[in-house]
Input
Amino acid sequence: MLSKISKDSIIHESSQCVSCGLCLPHCPTYRLLKSEADSPRGRIALMNGVVNQRIPLNARFILHMDRCLTCRACEAVCPNNVPYGHLIDKTRALIANQPKSLVATQKAGARSMLERLLLARPVRLDRLRRLFYFIQKSGWLRWLQKLSQLEKNKLFKFVVQLPLVKFPHAASVAGKRASGDRWREIYPAEGERRGEVGLFLGCVARITDVATLNSSIYVLNRLGYTVHVPPDQACCGALYQHGGALKQAASLAQQNKSVFSGLKVKTIISAASGCGVQLLECGVADEHTQIVDISRFLTTAEGWESVEIMSLPQKILVHDPCSLRNVLRDQVYPHKLIARIPGVQVLSLPGNDQCCGAAGTYFIDQQEIASRLLESKLSAAMDSGARYLVTSNIGCAMHIANGLYEKGIDIEVLHPVTLLARQMGLEL
Output
């Protein structure tokens, strides 16, 4: 069971909510479902009631907690600074400690195996990269999709449309590439040396978004930064944290803190805003180290006068991930970074203050709500006439790309640093 200290913490933090309702217009599930129990203040009231034993911890309570996207838009507007993110995580930990007969979870099967076998030790994903590449190239995924039991499976449909797997490499000024299955521990700076940084790889990105990691290294090197990639780094732990597995999340945080503290660098760069938030809030950095999103770091970095960026006369839609907007408050930097490309017309995706529905594994666990939230994003993207859509979080990118693919909308979804690296000469 959840400790008395944790329960007392839920009581204390939930009591900070004054039920003013200022959060309601900003909550995606409340706007969609019009249910008080699916609003931040409603959920907080339910949390307080359960911990104080005024209401039962039953399936109905769990449903309302599961429907929360953890977008934390409520925190950004709360006049009393209620730590809603901490509250929902602790409450889900309370739920996770209930008898399995009560907790009808969807974390069984493929997702559970993914968490246990791969996410806890993401280096295993590096070893799977070549196998997955072979399966993609062979066309087996498309063939398997035709099987009746898989044709409508959300997760399988999502996997089928993933872009072709990339491999770790760093490009030099001369255009030569060193490639392989594993990441190098050090990618030396080119030209004038301006500093050293650590790069956090994440877990899912090691297969699905190597292009963004390659691009981050490439641009950093070109600007004069040596990039350290420690081989023993773990998953950031966000999926565990938001799923109530707080001990597992803390263990991963400790491993990452130990690994990166040994580098003696002042900055740890994250290319995924969700990972950046988790690293920041779980204490991976210390008084000598900062966690910085790649777009923010590059926007404020020196050395741009020494690089050439090819023109791209296209409309570029910029999507703001919730983690970047509501927690890091860094949503302006991807816009500024893309604006460095000559000829682009930078457009903010309408509805950027609302969640796209990805939210970690939410798009799998709560498919109906996630699809309804995504619909407005897809309509806005289609109406914009844009050729590209950039977003700074891998979950958002995959969710939006999957939606566009299913509707046959020809808009490429990628990370802002990936588009920038292309225009700087990186061949992906």
Observations:
- The CA atoms of residues 253 and 284 lie 6 Å apart.
- The chain has a mean pLDDT of 87.
- The radius of gyration is 21 Å.
